[in-house]
Every structure is written in structure tokens, then in C-alpha cells.
């Protein structure tokens, strides 16, 4: 695993907000956890930031890791692309301990990225971020016609869909036939 | 034909990339390269999209032959999202999104159609019009106009065929396109539809078309049938309604009752008919017809009456008696029953109510 720690940089913006608090209140050391996505890049995130994710929060509560154990066992999210996980971590850090605003305009404008982000956020159970993402996706098509929606959301028409399905079946049939033929050849 | 070695080579994606690279180096156009490749390795040895992928990478100056295509970034679309997320996205389209976007979304694609069709339609009022090339569906004041007959039928069917849909008002407007009506009736018949409707609005202008739709209404849910139109046509229409009732009861033995426990005539148990003008002669005829309907619970003939004294006399001749305490009310005994029809005649119209004598 390429354990390139990016946590210090991503967790950094949260520090100024915690500093004055720690000066006033008795110092409670903040615990950190580690996550990585498909690209194996490890992100160091504070427990406060991770509270946004019901999934990770549940994992933390159940595992009861010490600092060392957490460092040695980053939570693996192989189904999330590295850049998407980075976005999620950044969002969690930015909104650590803060009430979430009614709107979030810092979401990706690129459709594919947004859909990936929706899937990741849904998996990580980050309710507020999921709401923002869903709203952003919905706003893309508000007041649009079926044809425009198809274009914006990149959805094939029923006819195209059927043709693709037929083609996929045909290809699968061909491949299966090829494999059986190859297997028969090997048996000989 | 490709040898076994060649086949084995083609199975390995890296070797495949190398072979394409060899063809690419020839400097020929892509199609020529592919042709040469197929001639060398055998036809159908590699799909053109696969060949194209490598060729385009090389032409872009990317010669990384170790690239693993299974790591291709997948281009996600909204249909890759789970259904509950899509539903959440739809919710963000605004209040009443199910009403506003139902027909838009169901015409986007198959999966969206399933989603939109799963929503219980909350439309209370529906009006339908069908002209030769224009079909209008008015759902709660939202007009949907179609030039494609099948699209209109499909959207209409998706609502009326929903088992939980309850319509308060159904208004069948002008239908000049008979093909549309025929198709609609055929669909309704194949689906064995019985639409839940509370108020049926009929227009005597096209009553013959509307009569064809009546068997598809759930008679027991109909609270009131409103009839509007010209006097002559209304009279003809009312004659027809009464004729149906007579026909039904003529052959109304036990077996038929079991098979068809809700006869059409129950639809017309509560009727409100609006006339621009109603002559005494017509009014007498209509009342005479309605008095033959034992299922009639309430009937209001809204019309400006001129000579109600004469009209009362006419009704009396039919066998009704004027009540001594209320001179505007007559009672007509219902055959084989202790109930009576209470007929109230006033200048603004006539009301017929079925009443128990004890009331």
C-alpha cells in the first residue's frame, strides 16, 4: 500500500477553529482516524469531522481503536475513487462541528463526478452532503423536457437502451460460445 | 484462420496492445490498420472498439502498453444510482414533484417510467379532449398536450389504471378522434379497468362516445353524475340512460346479478342536469322517465321554469300527489316499495328525491 499521508494537509483548515476553544476549555486531545479509497492514499481525519458519516462513526464506536491501532488499520473504502474520497474528507473537515448551511455551492459541477460523489456519500451515510448532492442533481433538470433530461443526465432513449441490451446479450452469447469451444479444444 | 498461438496471444490484453501498436506503426489510417490486423490475426479476433481504444491512445502519444483496461474510469450516469437516491433527487425537484414531473419523467426512460408509475397518482380532476392531431389531458389544471396519440394514451393509462388512484371529477370533453377513443376502450377492456370516480361530468354533445366509457367506471364510487348540454340532446341522452336501465332490469335474473352485481344504472342514482331552458313538455317527459328508475336517489333538473302550475298538473297526471303542507312538493309512489319519490318543483328547477314514507 502506498501510504502517502495527506491527512495533515486536509485536516489543517480545522485547526484554527479548534485552537481558541482548546485555550478556553480544558484540553481534550482530538483523536484521528485514517481512511483510504481505491487509490490507497491514506487520509487522516479527526473523529469530529468523521461524525458526519454515520457509517464511519458506527465503525469507530464499535472498534474502540487506540491512536496507534487506528493508524495501523486505515478504514478501506475500495469502492470509492481517491479523488471522490478526498472531496468527502474535505467536506467533513470544512463542516466539522458546524451547523450545515441550507445550501452548498462547492459541489462538483462535472456530472460524472457528482454521480460518483452521490454514490460515495450514500455509502458513507453522510446525510447532509447527500441532501446537497441530490439537490444539485435535481436542479440540473428542473423545468426541463424529457429529451433535455435525457441529454443532461446522459440517459439513452428506450430504443438505444434496447439495442445496447441486445448487443450485450449477443456479445455475451458469443463469448460463452467461444469459451465452450476453447474448453472443448483443451479437453481434446 | 488464426492459429492457437495467435488466439492465446489475443486473450492477453497486453499482447493485444502490442499487436495493435505494431499495426499503428504502419502509419496507415485506422480502418486500414484494423483490416490488416484482422487479415493477420483472423476476422473477429478483436472487436473494433477494442482496437480503436488502443489505436487512439497511441495516436495521442500514450504508449503505455501496461495499461489495464479493467481500470478504465467508468462513466457513470444517473441510472447507476440506487432507486432510493433517484427518488430523493426527484423529491428535490420541489413540492408536488410527483404531480409536476410525473409525465416528464415517465417519458425519459424505462427505469424512470417504473419509478413515476409507482407513485400513487394524486390527481383529483381529469378532463380529456381528443382532436385529430391534438390530444389534451388536463390533470388538476395542468395541461398536457400531445401530438402523439400513443404517448397521450400511455400517460393517461398510467394514471387511470393505477389501482389506488381516486378521481373526484372526470370530464370527457370533445372527442373527434374516434381512433383515440377506440384504442382507449380496447386498453381499458384488456386491463379490465374500473375507475374510481366520484363525479362524472357528461356533456350531451358527445353522449354516444361517453356512453361507451360508462362500463369502465366503478359505479359504487360515483356520487353524482352531472349532465350539461342542449335541451334536445339532453333529452335524447336521458332517454338513452333510462332505456339502458330498463334493458338491464328486463333481463335481470339471479345469474346476471351475480356476474354483474353493479349494473350501469346505479351510476345514475344521483344526477344533476343543467338546461339552458326546459319546456313543460320536455320536463314532464324527463320526470316521467326518471320516475321509472327505482335506483334513482336524487335528481336535480336545473332549469328556468316558466309555468310551474301547468307542470305540477302534468306530474299529477303521472300519478303523483301534491302535499297539503307543501304546495311545491309532490309524492310519487315507487312500485313494489314503501318509498316515494319526492318531487319538488320551483322556478329554478326540479328536484326528485327518493324518500321513505316514514321520513
Automatic annotation (TrEMBL), chain A:
Alphabetically ordered keywords of this record: Ubl conjugation pathway
SKP1 component POZ domain segment(s): 38-96
GO biological process, one term: protein ubiquitination
SUPFAM superfamilies assigned: POZ domain, Skp1 dimerisation domain-like
Residue ranges, compositional bias (Basic and acidic residues): 165-177
Record field: compositional bias (Low complexity): 8-25, 178-188
Gene3D superfamilies reported in the protein's UniProt record: Potassium Channel Kv1.1, Chain A (3.30.710.10)
Pathway of action: Protein modification; protein ubiquitination
Domain SKP1 component dimerisation: 127-170
Residue numbers spanned by region Disordered: 1-25, 160-188
Function noted in UniProt: Probable essential component of SCF (SKP1-CUL1-F-box protein) E3 ubiquitin-protein ligase complexes, which mediate the ubiquitination and subsequent proteasomal degradation of target proteins. Regulates cell proliferation during embryonic and larval development.
Record-given protein name: Skp1-related protein
Source organism: Caenorhabditis nigoni
Upper lineage: Eukaryota, Metazoa, Ecdysozoa, Nematoda, Chromadorea
From TrEMBL, chain B:
Pfam families per record: F-box, FTH, HTH_48
SMART domains per UniProt: FBOX
Xref: InterPro entries: DUF38/FTH_CAE_spp, F-box_dom, Mos1_HTH
Domain of life according to the entry: Eukaryota
Signal peptide span: none
Start and end residues of each F-box domain: 81-125
Protein name per UniProt: F-box domain-containing protein
Amino acid at each position: 500500500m502506498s501510504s502517502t499521508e495527506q491527512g495533515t494537509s486536509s485536516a489543517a483548515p480545522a485547526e484554527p477553529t479548534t485552537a481558541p476553544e482548546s485555550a478556553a476549555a480544558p484540553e481534550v486531545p482530538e483523536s484521528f482516524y485514517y481512511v483510504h479509497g481505491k487509490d490507497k492514499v491514506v487520509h487522516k481525519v479527526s473523529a469530529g469531522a468523521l461524525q458526519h458519516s454515520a457509517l464511519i462513526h458506527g465503525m469507530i464506536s464499535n472498534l474502540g481503536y487506540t491512536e496507534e491501532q487506528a493508524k495501523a488499520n486505515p478504514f478501506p473504502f475500495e469502492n470509492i475513487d481517491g479523488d471522490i474520497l478526498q472531496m468527502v474528507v474535505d467536506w467533513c473537515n470544512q463542516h466539522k462541528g458546524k451547523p450545515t448551511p441550507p445550501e452548498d455551492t462547492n459541489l462538483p459541477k462535472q456530472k460524472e463526478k457528482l454521480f460518483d460523489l452521490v454514490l460515495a456519500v450514500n455509502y458513507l451515510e453522510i446525510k447532509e452532503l447527500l441532501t446537497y448532492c441530490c439537490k444539485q442533481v435535481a436542479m440540473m433538470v428542473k423545468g426541463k423536457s424529457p429529451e433535455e433530461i435525457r441529454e443532461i443526465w446522459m440517459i439513452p432513449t428506450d430504443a438505444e437502451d434496447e439495442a445496447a441490451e441486445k448487443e450485450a446479450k449477443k456479445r455475451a452469447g458469443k463469448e460463452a460460445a467461444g469459451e465452450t469451444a476453447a474448453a472443448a479444444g483443451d479437453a481434446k | 484462420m488464426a492459429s492457437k498461438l495467435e488466439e492465446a496471444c489475443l486473450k492477453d490484453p497486453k499482447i493485444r496492445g502490442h499487436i495493435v501498436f505494431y499495426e499503428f506503426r504502419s502509419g496507415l489510417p485506422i480502418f486500414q490498420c484494423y483490416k490488416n490486423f484482422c487479415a493477420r490475426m483472423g476476422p473477429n479476433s478483436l472487436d473494433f472498439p477494442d482496437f480503436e481504444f488502443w489505436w487512439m491512445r497511441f495516436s495521442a502519444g500514450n504508449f503505455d502498453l501496461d495499461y489495464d483496461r479493467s481500470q478504465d474510469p467508468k462513466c457513470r450516469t444517473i441510472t447507476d444510482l440506487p432507486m432510493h437516491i433517484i427518488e430523493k433527487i426527484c423529491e428535490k425537484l420541489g413540492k408536488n414533484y410527483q404531480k409536476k414531473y410525473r409525465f416528464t419523467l415517465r417519458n425519459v426512460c424505462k427505469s424512470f417510467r417504473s419509478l413515476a408509475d409507482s407513485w400513487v397518482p394524486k390527481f383529483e380532476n381529469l378532463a380529456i379532449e381528443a382532436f385529430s392531431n391534438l390530444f389534451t389531458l388536463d390533470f388538476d389544471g395542468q395541461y398536457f398536450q400531445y401530438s402523439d396519440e400513443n404517448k397521450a394514451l400511455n400517460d393517461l393509462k398510467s394514471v387511470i389504471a393505477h389501482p389506488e388512484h381516486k378521481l373526484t371529477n372526470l370530464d370527457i370533453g370533445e372527442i373527434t378522434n374516434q381512433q383515440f377513443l377506440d384504442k382507449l376502450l380496447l386498453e381499458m377492456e384488456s386491463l379490465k379497468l374500473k375507475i374510481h370516480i366520484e363525479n362524472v361530468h357528461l356533456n350531451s354533445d358527445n353522449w354516444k362516445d361517453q356512453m361507451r366509457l360508462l362500463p369502465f367506471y366503478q359505479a359504487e364510487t360515483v356520487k353524482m353524475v352531472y349532465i350539461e348540454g342542449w335541451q334536445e340532446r339532453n333529452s335524447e341522452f336521458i332517454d338513452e340512460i333510462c332505456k339502458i336501465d330498463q334493458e338491464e332490469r328486463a333481463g335481470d335474473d339471479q345469474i346476471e346479478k351475480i356476474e354483474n352485481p353493479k349494473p350501469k344504472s346505479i351510476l345514475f342514482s344521483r344526477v344533476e342536469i343543467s338546461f339552458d331552458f326546459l319546456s313543460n313538455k320536455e320536463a314532464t317527459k324527463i320526470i316521467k322517465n326518471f320516475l321509472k328508475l327505482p335506483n334513482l336517489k336524487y335528481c336535480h333538473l336545473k332549469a328556468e321554469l316558466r309555468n310551474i302550475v301547468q307542470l305540477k298538473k302534468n306530474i299529477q297526471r303521472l300519478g303523483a300527489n301534491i302535499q297539503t303542507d307543501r304546495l311545491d312538493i309532490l309524492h310519487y309512489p315507487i312500485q313494489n316499495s314503501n318509498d316515494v319519490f319526492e318531487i319538488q318543483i320551483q322556478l329554478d328547477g326540479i328536484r326528485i328525491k327518493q324518500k321513505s314514507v316514514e321520513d
